[in-house]
Design goal:
The chain has about 160 residues and is α+β, with helices and mostly antiparallel strands. It has 5 helices and 5 strands; from the N terminus they run βαββαααββα. The longest helix has 19 residues.
Length: about 160
């Protein structure tokens, strides 16, 4: 078993606050998509509040900013979930629910097995990706970095 797992953060800003009809169809799909994620091959963990999703976690005063963080066995398992399951359909509707985001809205990075990233850690990885471009400390699907070799640490 690998000593490393893949963490991911993605952020989005809603076009309207929760409860507004313009974003209700997004919220109507969360439970089903989360259930598929929870059962997906390679899924390890996802950040969630008492409701079972992350939409009630507000790390900033902007209540339209949503933050999602999860951990996966590897990048291929995450990729399969994102693009080859029911997650793909709402992904295609994101322009209906979310304002175009300036800067990085998703970052991937390797964490020691068992580590659960905090919101601050994830936001820091987005900042690093914006500031320095893809590196082993923060990257995306298009510019992948392998898990560190045993005995090495990913700095960031």
């Amino acid at each position: 078993m690998s000593r490393w797992q893949l963490a991911q953060i993605n952020v989005a800003r809603l076009v309207a606050p929760k409860g507004d009809p313009r974003v209700q169809s997004f919220f109507d799909q969360i439970e089903g998509v989360n259930a598929v994620a929870d059962g997906a091959e390679g899924f390890v963990w996802r950040m969630q509040d008492d409701s079972g999703n992350a939409t009630g976690i507000n790390p900033t005063p902007d209540l339209t900013l949503l933050v999602n963080i999860s951990v996966w066995r590897d990048i291929d398992c995450l990729y399969d979930f994102v693009y080859r399951t029911v997650h793909r359909e709402p992904l295609g509707q994101r322009r209906d629910w979310f304002v175009p985001f300036e800067g990085a809205f998703q970052a991937l990075w390797w964490v020691p097995a068992g580590h659960r990233p905090s919101v601050d850690e994830g936001l820091g990885r987005l900042w690093m990706l914006d500031r320095y471009g893809p590196t082993a400390a923060a990257f995306g699907f298009k510019t992948r970095f392998p898990a560190p070799l045993d005995g090495l640490t990913v700095h960031g």
